[in-house]
Amino acid sequence: MTAARSGEYDVAIIGAGIAGIFAAYELVTRRPDLKVALLEQGPAIGRRSCPIIDKRSDSCVDCPTCSIMRGFGGAGAFSDGKFNFTTQFGGWLGDYVGPDEVMALIEYVDRVNVAFGATEESFSTYTEEADRIRRLALGYDLHLLDARCKHLGTEKNRELLAKQHQWLTERLDVMCNAKVHAFSPRKDGGFALETAKGTVGCRFLVAAPGRSGAEWFTGQCRGLGLEPINNQVDLGVRVELPAAVFKHVTDAVYEAKLLYRTKQYKDQVRTFCMNPYGHVVTENTDGIITVNGHSYTDPKLRSENTNFALLVSNRFTSPFREPYQYGKRIASLSNMLGGGVLMQRYGDLISGNRTNAHRMEQSFVRPTLDATPGDLSLVLPKRHLDNLIEMIQALDRLAPGTANHDTLLYGVEVKFYSARLTLTSELETQLPGFFAAGDGAGITRGLSQAGASGVLAARGILKRLA
Ligand SMILES: Cc1cc2nc3c(=O)[nH]c(=O)nc-3n(C[C@H](O)[C@H](O)[C@H](O)COP(=O)(O)OP(=O)(O)OC[C@H]3O[C@@H](n4cnc5c(N)ncnc54)[C@H](O)[C@@H]3O)c2cc1C
Questions:
Q1: CATH assignment of 8-121+152-229+420-465?
Q2: What is the Å distance from ligand 1's center to 264 Cα?
């Protein structure tokens, strides 16, 4: 069934990332009679293209709409789609419904993905081999988090999204290039949305704007008298080294999420988003270029390197409440010095030298991103640098070679935490009929929980409509 094309809907969803997609999927699967609009600021999945990934440019050209972050499929579309089955990381959905329900929702999202063609194969940290790595890591005070992980693969992830886009287009109004400028409650209990494609009205509203829309969303919520809270930002570097260094770890668990508390500052540092045989890429958040990584499933597209993020978690206390700005300003320093992402060899960092083109020519590790050689000590605060160096030395015991002179550090990698609203166990805000889901609402930090949150919000709405 195709929803009627009108400006009035039962449900409008802001953002076609995985949270918005799964909210839409759940609504029209359970109630095909509903009129649902899925509004996305960026282009359709088939029209998303990044000049760097398409090899049309070596560096970020600051496109008006960053295809890495926006468009049908959301921020996950160009990722290699590591789908984690866990409540230990990737969000705080468990704070609303409890860990068992979160796991059931994640399994549900996975089954839907499988029906659209996602792989059945997954890696687990519960195997004998993974247990060996866990024990080895513990000996160096590194703590391996438990999770089953599915690697969808960058190219497969896009195929999957293209199928979901088609499926949804046949059942509801998927509006791409339709940025929502503002939304407000109406007197009749519904909502009015001012969009790039005109005014849209709805009875129920789901906001799933992702991290790229988080700042806008926070402003909208404040305007409606809903005060979101945020006091955390994770800041660090992306490490790139020969895949052989971490092979015993990545073969066992694919992605190792390792936690470490530094002896000097007692800060928590973690590995994140590990990409065996992967590529380092840039990410554009509101004009600030930061670094990220991904990897393909197709062996022909693989590199010789593994990359992963090393992140230091910072929680700020009152009166400071702008961690987002803090992260952005540090990232903008690297942009100012390097015209984008800076890259430094670990050995140069330790010996106080700037990495330059000549030193890079001597490097045994070939970078997969064309970043500017430079000096990260001019960008990152001392506390962060000390924490990162201590963590690299700890990792070197688990994976000898991590602290080699030529290990590459790209900076900066920032994980922004969107502000969190007060929500019910069905993810309804204090404004009746207004639901929030995914990373932009500060509830999640990854694909699996973001998708699960979309389903949860949709089920809350379906109960109201029953
Ligand atoms: C390069 C990269 C790699 C990643 N790799 C992984 C991984 O391997 N595994 C993992 O679990 N997670 C990964 N992540 C994180 C993951 O992509 C996110 O957690 C997930 O996409 C969050 O889903 P979401 O639906 O909440 O938000 P998003 O996916 O960010 O989608 C939100 C959408 O809302 C749209 N939007 C925002 N504001 C508006 C507006 N005003 N009007 C209309 N539309 C709007 C945006 O354009 C965007 O498309 C990665 C992220 C990046 C950037």
A1: 3.50.50.60
A2: 35
